[in-house]
Design a protein that fits this description.
Length: 131
């Protein structure tokens, strides 16, 4: 599995110049929260979701890619399935009324494969002066 260098990804992104929009939390039929991420072509849909127990294998595979693992702090080498299950369980037990959406999932908010992760801090009000 090949992954482009992180610097190349950032420079290839064409972010809109206008201010960042608000995204509403939607829910799957089984009430799992998600946010539909914007897309600029008609081929791939991405969603921001919570971790699901079924994400362990994809997380393990991703974190065993050398370039990814080496860019992170304190990730075990090799990253084992037990590590992934433990990490996911910790993320699923976060407290708070706001869903902790941190998984980038492709194709479908409930059945899509984990494609990456982000860490966001919920805040009240608009986010301004991001540059």
């Amino acid at each position: 599995m090949d992954f482009p260098a992180f610097g190349k990804i950032i420079h290839q992104m064409e972010l809109p110049v206008e201010s960042f929009p608000y995204y509403e939390i939607e829910y799957t039929q089984d009430q799992k929260p998600y946010v539909r991420l914007p897309h600029y072509d008609n081929t791939t849909l991405f969603f921001l979701t919570e971790f699901y127990g079924t994400d362990a294998e994809a997380l393990m595979e991703t974190l065993n890619v050398g370039d990814i693992n080496n860019a992170l702090i304190s990730v075990p080498k090799p990253y084992k399935l037990d590590h992934a299950h433990y990490f996911i369980k910790q993320q699923q037990h976060s407290s708070g009324a706001v869903p902790f959406l941190q998984v980038i999932r492709n194709g479908d908010p409930r059945l899509g494969r984990l494609a990456g992760c982000v860490w966001l801090t919920p805040r009240e009000g608009a986010m301004e002066n991001l540059y």
